[in-house]
Specification:
- This protein is of the alpha/beta class.
- Helices cover 36% and strands 26% of the residues.
- A hairpin with a 6-residue loop joins strand 2 and strand 3.
- InterPro entries: DUF8009 (IPR058322).
- This is DUF8009 domain-containing protein.
- Pfam families: DUF8009.
Length: 140
């Protein structure tokens, strides 16, 4: 592809991604400031690799990159089951906080294992040309 075609994400037919990257990106965003996404950068072609990317300011306008929310590639029921620390800390005696945080860390690790097994087969990218469906290919 040459010129503007290389910048057109509708050229993408499939995204190769690591299930661990998807699970880690989702958990990162839930537990930390900033946002983790699966990032695809131009030039775009049929099969692209999406890699984990953490940011505080969205630079997609400048770079032309496509950011895929990790929740988009993980089955909805698994996303809905993410363990939240706030819920676990409700009505907990302050002396129990460390124990609850440890238990939360273990629950997140178990969730990430489940999420790695729950990667969807297809997603829709929102592009300037409208919605564009792409296949998801698992790597790693």
């Amino acid at each position: 592809m040459a010129g503007d075609e290389a910048d057109d994400p509708t050229a993408i037919r499939s995204l190769a991604l690591s299930p661990a990257d998807a699970a880690d990106a989702y958990a990162y965003t839930q537990e930390n400031p900033g946002e983790a996404v699966l990032r695809v950068t131009p030039p775009f072609h049929g099969r692209m690799r999406a890699r984990i990317h953490v940011y505080h300011l969205d630079d997609t306008e400048l770079t032309g990159a496509v950011h895929v929310a990790p929740a988009a590639v993980i089955a909805d029921d698994v996303v809905a089951d993410y363990p939240t620390l706030e819920t676990e800390l409700e009505d907990v005696d302050p002396s129990e906080t460390d124990r609850v945080r440890k238990r939360h860390g273990e629950a997140v690790a178990a969730w990430q294992e489940r999420a790695r097994e729950a990667i969807v087969d297809e997603i829709t990218l929102e592009t300037d040309g409208g919605p564009h469906s792409v296949e998801i290919k698992r790597v790693g």
